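Open question from group meeting: does this chain pack into something compact, or does most of it stay loose? Before anyone orders reagents, we agreed to write out a predicted structure and look at it together. Recording both the input and the output here so the notebook holds the full record.
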Amino acid sequence: MWPTSGTRSAHTQPSSVQYQVSLTSLMTGTVSSFREKQKYLVIVVVVVVVVVVVVVVVVVVVVVVVVVGTAAAKVVILQSTKTVRCDWMPKTSGFMCLDALTRVYAFSRPLDDQVDFQNSPLHSKDVTPDCERMFETPEPSGKSGGGPAEVKLWSRQDTERAFLNWGRVTKDLFFFGQYSEITMSKALYDPRVSKWSLDFRLRHGFLGACSITNVCEFYAHGSDGSKTLLWTNKYQVVSVDKKTRQPARLPAWFKEKYQGKGFLTSAMVLRPFKRPGHTYCHPILVQHSDIDEFGHANWSNYVRWSIDALHAALLPDKQDNNVAKNANSGGSSSSTNLGAQTKGGRALRGITMATVKRGLAKFQASYFRECLEGEQVEVHVWQDGAPLEVCCGLVKAGEDICQVKLFYFPDEDEGECL
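Structure tokens returned:
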């Protein structure tokens, strides 16, 4: 029996061992499967965290780039705006010609085609109706295919309809510029102020024996109906005989009709200034393009020549051979200004290119003689002591033909010359 029993035990023992082994294997497999799942779960979590971190980093980088780029763009725009704002734009010759053409247009439109200036905010209460003209930009009609309104002009036979009877008084007389004082506002330099469309007001100021003083103003016409003053031109013309080209008295009928109707109490007094012994001289040859319909150099060219001479004087004197002329010697001799940093040398005391870039605030021009195509003109520039003022004397054959004084914006406006 023992063998049988032993045999049976032998058969029973392996069964129990196999059970234990199977249970152990099951438990081991379960633990291994859990660990693998846990490992996969950790990997998934790590991947998700990495992805989130990468996304966050990318978003942060994009935000930083956008912020920095926007800031840099703003700096560039501000610097560019400052440059455009501080440089003289538009050029004086450009807006002076616009000024003159607009005045011609004003004198050419009939009186019954003017705006209702009595209700206009630009109307001056101290000017009679026939001595003030205003031209406002018309509002768009909104009709498709519609062109500009027909411009009404007076004819020489219909002289009574013209402003100041201009057609009649100019039959026998020329009117040459004698004096002009143009004052620019800071809005003219501000790129945020639209320079189109423009409103224009012309007022008669004073009537002399052979001179007429008027004042014209140009306004920026805002889309909201606002008007911003850009520049004012106070100018005086003298009547000239067409044959002799010499000053001539205004006709009696003209004086009778317009004497005392202007808003000024006196004519513009011209006080020539003395040219010193030491100046910077800039030579000019009058070109064909400088000549206007009267056969002489246009009034705007004298100012342009003066500004060109000033800029030439402020150029670096690399060879130290600036043309500094002695007025007492007739402008024929030159002297070398040793140690000068600019070509203007000691003729310019205080003004710099940085001052010029702040913008021209005002200029005054007095016209004494005319100059013709092919003639040589010398432009002398100097300063009398005021750091923001430059005197310019234009000389032809030893005789002063024009004097110009330039005024620039003060130093406190350097950061914001609007």
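Observations to bring back to the group:
The chain has a mean pLDDT of 77.
The first strand starts at residue 132 and ends at 135.
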